[in-house]
What we know:
The protein is built from ten helices and four strands, in the order αααααβαβαβαααβ. By secondary structure, it is mainly alpha-helical. The longest helix has 43 residues, at 302-344. The N and C termini lie far apart (72 Å). Residues 348-396 have low confidence and may be disordered.
Amino acid sequence: MGSPSALIGNPPLNPSDLDIIKGLQKLLIAGTKPPYPPMPPPEQGMPFGTPRPPPAQYRVEGRRPQFIGLASVIIIIMTFVTGLRLAIRAQNAKIVFGKDDLAVAVGTAMALVIPVLFLAQVSYGGMGKHIYDLTYHELYVSHMLGATQTTFLFVSLGVIKISIILLYMRVSGFTSRMWMAVHWFLLSVVVSYCLGSLFVMVFTCSPIGIYFNLRAIGRMQHPLTCIDQSKALAVLSATHVVTDFSLLAIPIALLWKVQMKWTKKLRIWLAGLFGLSSCSFALLRTITQYVVQEPDPTYDTVDMVVYLMLDVTTAVIAASLPVLSVLVTRMQHRYLEYRSSGQRAGRLPLRGDSDPIAMPRRKSHRTSIVDITRLESRSSSDVEDIHIDNITPQKR
């Protein structure tokens, strides 16, 4: 901007401020039925949210450091978990890089856009400040980034669900046609969910895509025509929660018919149960977003932001846990092999030994080298078992 922008509630300082005020007023009444709430003349400014306190009670407050720290940690966790999953897949030549891996990579890439856009909101859109400390230009930027963030939120969650369903399909192919039909039904629901979220965000208002731009809305010479976006987003959020719980229940019921060691079943069940946290955060985010009304949305949205970030992060982790559990199996086998080689050598590992690889070699350790080679072979097959590439159904 060439000239400074006025604080929200004050008269505009330039034509851009005036267009943003007009756009905000049109957007607030779009999709509603008369009688419309009274609006002040745009030239006088537009009060929005919590009014500015008197000078004697005013103090500068902000939550920008907390928001920046949260978004940064979320980016690191999602990148690390998905990168580790893909590294495990690439390391073992016996495991084919499947469609579920491609879907989770795409879903994570889209999910990473969410905290990045949130960081942009904090830096350029006034997120973390009180609403009365924002300028009209900051409100314009925050609205544009927030609408884009909501679009990526629903679509990325849908793509991550698709990756989980594709993983389940590997199991259903060895069980029955009924389970395959269930997975195809869920897949169609999730794909419709993704397309529906894109439709709701892009086609909310006419002309297409104008919902994202308050300034362009203010320059329109006719009233804004929009659907009731709040109801549409509520339906999408409810669909998200229902599909989360459906995907959570499938592995518990499905693995009863699969011939597999109980220890491996338990690991897969625990990985699926981790999705319960994602379901909980999705439910809490939906309740907070559509039930709790915040009069100071850029400052008092801490709970909703935390639930949103945790919803996406736990979904990414839950989608990769069945593959990441391979690391636990390998560590357990290496530990047991080390103890076995120590017993054959006449020496058990001491409590103070921190690194068995760094211990002095003995002649009796020749056997352990052979066993370690055998262990690597078992680890490769175990990866296939955990990732459900080698599961056989029980005999009926």
